[in-house]
Write a structure and sequence with these properties.
Structural class of chain A: alpha/beta
CATH topology of chain A: Rossmann fold
Mean pLDDT of chain B: 86
CATH superfamily of chain A: Cobalamin-binding domain
Number of helices of chain A: 5
Strand order of the largest sheet of chain B: 4-2-5-1-6-7-8
Largest interface: A-B, 34 and 31 residues
Helix content of chain B: 40-55%
Shape of chain A: globular
Largest sheet of chain A: 5 strands, parallel
CATH topology of the largest domain in chain B: Rossmann fold
Oligomer: heterodimer
Strand order of the largest sheet of chain A: 2-1-3-4-5
Number of domains of chain A: 1
CATH architecture of the largest domain in chain B: 3-Layer(aba) Sandwich
């Protein structure tokens, strides 16, 4: 029957208005055959978790350039868990100081992509993380 | 607990997962739908279609907000939104961006928004949209807003799925010949001119009103002949809105409610329900028979016929005949073995 599609939510939490990076990643994932739900600028963690639930996504990607990642990311993860979506693959892109990367990974973020990341890497990581799972 | 009982109990994550199973055409999704089907038929299905950029998503956002609040005599209703966007014909990927315009609805547990990729289906909906709508109907949403892809002039599938079809236009999109072409305007139960603060809204309004004057008396009662048309047939109103400023929304909701009342009083509600289910059954039959036929056909046979066709040794009709004959031969063989 119909093939399994990887569904990814791409979100911009917080107050910075620079969404170029988020759009580049969204297009790259679309071109890799995935279905991207794009929510636009200035999303609260609550809005992101709610969209992830209604859309039943496999992954949530957040682009943050404001420096607020240590507040926003754990809140999103906490809400995803509270909703029963512990298995959602969370990744972060944007301007993240190197010292914060291990802390984010500790919180449950699966990957952090800085400037200069090759989009193919994001595609590859996502495919590997999502597809071996139980077929739904 | 089964999927179906969890959905009936209002578990939103289970509902979301069921929608994925339905979209991926998994047997578990089908099983749950079988159990849920007797709970469907209560929601008012409202289709929203129109060209890209006419403001469908913004309008859906405003309509959902309006329905969520109680207004003189009308209680607040729960609302589900199904927003369909196109899939890439080359990669199968899709960028679903309708939620960007629906941020006002965030944080309201009485609203459930689901984005769907068309996954190659033409006609403005995905093949599984009808089934997704059924699941939301069974889950108890009072109003289901269905937003089509918005690609063109042939998006008429929505009229078969929805009780009430809104066709959204914006000023300055085509002359009056566009308005009298067959297709998208004929399916409208309500015509909306959005972005009505832009110049040219009055011209668009005149063109649409003129089109309505000329319209065939049986219009709006898609497949039946004149004798069966109820006495007071529905005349689609033309309404002006500015969705981003919430202008004209209460008049639009009032028109939607009047249309629902018209459907119920005239018996059209039941007729449309029967037509919808018949069209869904027919789609299922076509889809299933074609895929069964394809799987039973030896792949090499298909390739040989295709090679003859591309070599112009046979015409497409001859190719068809050869494949159908091969099939009949095959099934006869089965009988004799």
């Amino acid at each position: 029957m119909s093939e399994r599609k990887i569904r990814v939510l791409i979100a911009k939490p917080g107050l910075d208005g620079h969404d170029r990076g988020a759009k580049v990643v969204a297009q790259a994932l679309r071109d890799a055959g995935m279905e991207i739900i794009y929510t636009g600028l200035r999303q609260t963690p609550e809005m992101i978790a709610e969209a992830a639930l209604q859309e039943d996504v496999d992954a949530v990607g957040m682009s943050i350039l404001s420096g607020a990642h240590m507040v926003l990311v754990p809140r999103v993860i906490e809400l995803l868990h509270a909703n029963g979506q512990e298995n959602v693959h969370v990744f972060v892109g944007g301007i993240i100081p190197p010292a914060d990367i291990p802390k984010l990974l500790e919180m449950g973020v699966k990957a952090v992509y800085g400037p200069g990341t090759v989009t193919g890497q994001v595609v590859e990581d996502l495919t590997r993380a999502v597809l071996p799972e139980a077929e739904t | 607990m089964t999927l179906a009982t969890d959905v009936l109990a209002g578990k939103r994550l289970t509902l979301a997962r069921l929608l994925t199973l339905i979209e991926n055409e998994k047997p578990e999704g089908r099983e749950a739908l079988d159990q849920l089907f007797s709970h469907t038929g209560k929601a008012h299905l409202i289709g929203v279609t129109g060209p890209p950029g006419s403001g469908k998503s913004s309008l859906v956002n405003q309509l959902a907000r309006f329905f969520r609040t109680a207004h003189a005599g009308d209680p607040a209703a729960t609302v589900a939104v199904v927003a369909v966007d196109p899939s890439s014909p080359f990669t199968g990927g899709a960028l679903l961006g309708d939620r960007v315009r629906m941020r006002d609805l965030a944080g309201d547990p009485g609203v459930f928004i689901r984005s769907m990729a068309a996954r190659g289906a033409l006609g403005g909906l995905a093949r599984t949209t009808a089934a997704v709508v059924q699941a939301l109907d069974a889950a108890g949403y009072d109003i289901i807003l269905i937003e089509t892809v918005g690609a063109g002039q042939s998006e008429v599938e929505i009229a078969r799925l929805a009780h009430t079809t809104l066709v959204v236009e914006a000023p300055g999109q085509g002359d009056d010949i566009q308005a009298i072409k067959a297709g998208i305007l004929e399916i409208a139960d309500i015509l909306v001119i959005n972005k009505a603060d832009r110049p040219g809204a009055d011209i668009t309004e005149r063109a649409l009103l003129a089109m309505l004057e000329f319209r065939h008396p049986t219009r709006g009662n898609h497949h039946r002949n004149a004798a069966e048309v109820p006495h007071e047939a529905w005349t689609p109103p033309v309404l002006l809105t500015v969705a981003t400023q919430s202008e004209g929304i209460s008049a639009l909701v009032e028109a939607i409610r009047q249309h629902k009342k018209f459907l119920q009083d005239s018996g059209e509600w039941k007729t449309r329900d029967r037509e919808r289910l018949q069209s869904e059954l027919d789609h299922l039959i076509e889809h299933t028979l074609v895929s069964q036929w394809r799987t039973s056909l030896p792949p090499r046979q298909y390739q040989t016929v295709l090679a003859n066709l591309t070599g112009r040794l046979i015409s497409p009709y001859q190719a068809l005949d050869q494949l159908l004959e091969a099939q009949t031969g095959l099934s006869q063989n089965h009988e004799y073995i």
